[in-house]
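Class, carefully examine what follows:
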Amino acid sequence: MTLDEALSRATVPVPEAGAVFYGLGRNASYEAARRGDIPTVEIGGKKMAIVSAIAQRLGLETKFGRAA
């Protein structure tokens, strides 16, 4: 997944968010999510990263405009 693809979605899987936004591997991504460094929501038992919250922290814009 590219940065542009991630920014066009509301949520992405935690490992992909960690890789795209922070350069982290799978385990480090889940650890960052557990600590709250990667904001998440659980959907059907699957932990997903919230793109707008990550974009706001990093000063990026999503497809939907600047993150609130």
